[in-house]
Backbone:
């Protein structure tokens, strides 16, 4: 026997055979059709008034780029959102433990500078398990760069900014599809849903996540095969009055109160840019990434009149991640398969003399939870301006960890200070983009590029005219200054 239709069955709408509500607000006539079938006595209370949440999302889409910058999504990077509703058959509650594998794959397989990761969980998950337990379950993923949006946080802005959503049968995943975002279903209890519902249609339309298969190829396939109109039918079923819900709802409320509506137009407040802070509606303050990083660097052959160019690809290398093949830093060899194969400007693979020289090193934050990982560090990082002053911190770090080649400190959102083994200090600062805005790339990436250059025996002075660091599909132009050892 099929379960009662959530929200439309007598169990939800009637008491002693009579409707509980004076007005039952519906977003689309298809809901009214299903209400008449599931609970006829409540149909007389139905009011078609659109969907205010969907209206705010639609109004927010023109501000997508602003949201992405506020969330720290750099140029050329992708924002992947994991979403779960509540219940034992949701993505979070799935009995096959898909979510732990998914979180591990997000931080292990996706290059940290090419992908931004956010999680949006239904408030019932937070209230049912408690914030402490939820944070404990997500702690390792957060340390590797996952941003967990609080239950009262700006999830709509995150959704509007997303490049892809991995979700389930909840409303947030449905909204993502309705605004044209590629969706991958990690859990979907088709038998629990009304087959005539739009959400059930999402389950018949959207591709499914293949648990325990490599995640990155699935995301590439999802994005490459997506068409913006794929879910046009779902968008049409989200609201019968897109953009008009504020007026329809206010009219309904004033009619119920027996009052005359104000003359001023009804409207819904525009969604602001996501803010970082400690308020319940904020994205948590940016925390330093605490996971050791396995870094692949590729030095491109220096062309006359061109700035040196180094590609940097960083992967989380925390507990439980797969082992990397060892790369001899003194040998030129093919790197592990990259999600963004190296190409020339025409799109052809780089081969022969044009092929980059690949090396690997390990970068470890000084605040890493497992301090024993610092013994393996080629590069020790500090993610924010430390006390004492950065110069003193780099000097003390090189003294404390004598096996490391360099110590690097992020001193500003676009600047990194690096101490070399000979005591010199190198300041790497990203040049603002053509639009005048600062580069959003993590400045610690620049230290890894410098490490690759220095370990190859290249004179640092040759970088004084500038350096180009490539992460994913983005180029970062750097100014380089050198301070003699003191």
Residues:
């Amino acid at each position: 026997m099929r379960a009662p239709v959530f929200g439309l069955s007598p169990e939800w709408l009637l008491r002693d055979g009579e409707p509980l509500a004076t007005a039952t607000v519906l977003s689309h006539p298809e809901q009214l059709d299903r209400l008449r079938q599931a609970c006829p006595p409540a149909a007389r209370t139905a009011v078609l008034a659109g969907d205010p949440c969907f209206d705010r999302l639609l109004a927010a889409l023109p501000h997508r780029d602003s949201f992405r910058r506020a969330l720290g999504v750099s140029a050329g990077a992708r924002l992947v959102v994991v979403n779960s509703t509540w219940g034992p058959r949701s993505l979070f509650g799935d009995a096959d433990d898909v979510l732990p594998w998914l979180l591990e794959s997000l931080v292990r397989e996706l290059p940290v500078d090419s992908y931004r990761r956010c999680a949006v969980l239904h408030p019932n998950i937070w209230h049912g398990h408690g914030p402490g337990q939820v944070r404990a379950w997500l702690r390792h993923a957060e340390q590797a760069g996952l941003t967990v949006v609080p239950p009262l946080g700006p999830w709509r802005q995150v959704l509007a900014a997303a490049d892809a959503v991995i979700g389930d049968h909840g409303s947030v995943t449905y909204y993502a599809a309705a605004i044209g975002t590629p969706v991958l279903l990690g859990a979907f209890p088709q038998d629990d849903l009304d087959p005539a519902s739009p959400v059930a249609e999402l389950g018949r339309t959207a591709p499914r996540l293949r648990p325990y298969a490599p995640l990155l190829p699935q995301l590439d396939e999802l994005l490459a095969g997506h068409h913006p109109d794929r879910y046009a039918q779902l968008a049409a079923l989200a609201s019968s009055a897109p953009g008009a819900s504020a007026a329809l709802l206010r009219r309904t409320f004033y009619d119920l109160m027996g009052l005359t509506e104000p003359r001023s137009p009804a409207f819904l407040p525009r969604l602001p840019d996501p803010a970082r802070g400690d308020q319940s509606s904020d994205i948590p303050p940016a925390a330093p990434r605490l996971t050791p990083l396995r870094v692949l660097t590729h030095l491109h052959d220096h062309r006359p009149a061109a700035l040196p160019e180094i590609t940097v690809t960083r992967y989380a290398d925390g507990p439980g991640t797969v082992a990397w093949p060892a790369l001899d830093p003194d040998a030129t060899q093919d790197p592990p398969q990259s999600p963004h194969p190296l190409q020339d400007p025409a799109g052809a693979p780089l081969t022969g003399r044009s092929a980059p020289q690949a090396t690997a090193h390990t970068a470890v934050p000084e605040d890493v939870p497992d301090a024993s990982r610092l013994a393996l560090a080629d590069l020790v990082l500090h993610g924010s301006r430390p006390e004492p002053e950065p110069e003193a911190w780099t000097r003390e770090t090189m003294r404390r960890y004598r096996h490391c080649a360099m110590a690097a400190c992020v001193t500003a959102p676009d600047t990194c200070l690096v101490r070399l083994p000979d005591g010199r200090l190198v300041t790497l600062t990203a040049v603002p983009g053509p639009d005048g805005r600062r580069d959003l790339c993590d400045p610690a990436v620049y230290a890894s590029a410098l490490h690759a250059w220095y370990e190859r025996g290249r004179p640092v002075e040759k970088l004084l005219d500038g350096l180009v660091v490539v992460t994913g599909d983005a180029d970062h132009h750097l100014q380089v200054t050198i301070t003699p050892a003191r």
About this structure: The radius of gyration is 26 Å. The mean pLDDT is 88. The CA atoms of residues 120 and 155 lie 6 Å apart.
